[in-house]
């Protein structure tokens, strides 16, 4: 068994066996633990789960979206990425301009009512088409506010200035690798209450250079272990690979520190199915020889090599 995936699978077992039954913002309910850590040696392979298929292209396009400083789902939809649709869709169906079917509590109702699910899918397809074809509509309903990309690349200060945290950190790694200040934070207390579709779950990350290797530690305040965390692991592992490549370093570890780590009650069967599977060897990442800067990254600059996995496992998103 691969050590990297084993860390994730063992945490799933621990949350199921020891987790507290807790209510949550979505009304779904969770098995929850507070405080956990997984370590992934990036020299051993790229930590994309193999016990269920995880779409690497979605991870890469979302990361590019963050790095660009973009906060509008139009970019994601142009790349076939539907990860953030529900939060933008919720804003639209709660607006006074929406005149379609009642979409209240759509995340839960679509799982319990096939007729409602069919109406939801029709409304979502219409919404996505409007986002792609109508820039004014996209600007109004496709933007998610001051989420990750905004905080990473365009943090606004009380003096009206902006800070490009990610660019500053890359330059610091290049010129002052021993610094203990290679930090990017997405948690902006001023924006959290009113200006974000979803307050950042992966709240802060820090880079560390030793033995010519770049490591990264992420603090994630809220961790959806089945749906979200596999994406987070791969996304920050990929970011570490890319910045290490730009800075002329090898990759070290990705350390994933979690606050409230939880499995939603309606994901338990899916997790148990995943735990019954035997992992495959981990894949690797190939970076295009022409790649020079993370800020010029395109989807074609990275390639996932030798990825073998079990089939995907579907589960509802709690919105």
Please, could you describe this protein's structure?
With 319 residues, this protein is of the alpha+beta class. It has two domains: 3-71 and 145-305, 2-Layer Sandwich (Thymidylate Synthase, Chain A); 85-143, no CATH class. 38% of the residues lie in helices and 21% in strands. The protein has helices at residues 3-18, 56-68, 73-78, 85-93, 106-112, 114-133, 135-141, 148-153, 165-175, 228-246, 268-275, and strands at residues 20-22, 30-41, 155-156, 162-163, 183-185, 202-210, 213-224, 250-264, 284-287, 302-305. It has a six-stranded mixed sheet. Strand 3 (155-156) and strand 4 (162-163) form a beta hairpin. Helix 1 (3-18) crosses helix 11 (268-275) and helix 5 crosses helix 6. The longest helix has 20 residues, at 114-133. The radius of gyration is 20 Å and the shape is globular. The mean pLDDT is 94. Residues 7-319 form the Thymidylate synthase/dCMP hydroxymethylase domain. Belongs to the thymidylate synthase family. Bacterial-type ThyA subfamily. It is found in: Cytoplasm. This is Thymidylate synthase. GO terms for molecular function: thymidylate synthase activity.
């Amino acid at each position: 068994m691969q050590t990297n995936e084993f860390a994730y699978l063992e945490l799933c077992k621990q949350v199921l066996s020891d987790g507290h039954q807790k209510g949550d913002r979505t009304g779904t309910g969770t098995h929850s633990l507070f405080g956990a850590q997984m370590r992934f040696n990036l020299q051993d392979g790229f930590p994309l789960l193999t016990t269920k298929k995880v779409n690497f292209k979605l991870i890469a396009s979302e990361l590019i979206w963050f790095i660009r400083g973009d906060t509008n789902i139009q970019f994601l939809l142009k790349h076939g990425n539907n990860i953030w649709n529900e939060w933008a869709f919720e804003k639209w169906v709660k607006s006074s301009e929406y005149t379609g079917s009642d979409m209240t509590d759509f995340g839960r109702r679509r799982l319990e009512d096939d007729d409602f699910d069919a109406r939801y899918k029709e409304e979502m397809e219409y919404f996505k088409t409007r986002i792609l074809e109508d820039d004014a509509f996209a600007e109004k309903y496709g933007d998610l506010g001051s989420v990750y990309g905004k905080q990473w690349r365009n943090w606004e200060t009380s003096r009206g200035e902006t800070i490009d945290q990610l660019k500053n950190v890359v330059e610091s790694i290049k010129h002052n690798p021993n610094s203990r200040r290679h930090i990017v934070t997405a948690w902006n207390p001023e924006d959290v209450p009113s200006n974000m579709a979803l307050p950042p779950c992966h709240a802060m990350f820090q880079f560390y250079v030793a033995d010519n290797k770049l490591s990264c530690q992420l603090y994630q305040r809220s961790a959806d272990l089945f749906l979200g965390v596999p994406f987070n692991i791969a996304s920050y592992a990929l970011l570490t690979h890319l910045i290490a490549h730009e800075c002329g370093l090898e990759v070290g570890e990705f350390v994933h520190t979690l606050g409230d780590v939880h499995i939603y009650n309606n994901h338990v069967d899916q997790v148990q199915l995943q735990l019954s599977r035997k992992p495959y060897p981990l894949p690797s990442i190939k970076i295009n020889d022409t790649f020079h800067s993370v800020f010029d990254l395109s989807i074609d600059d990275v390639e996932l090599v030798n990825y073998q996995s079990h089939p995907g496992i579907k589960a509802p998103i709690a919105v």
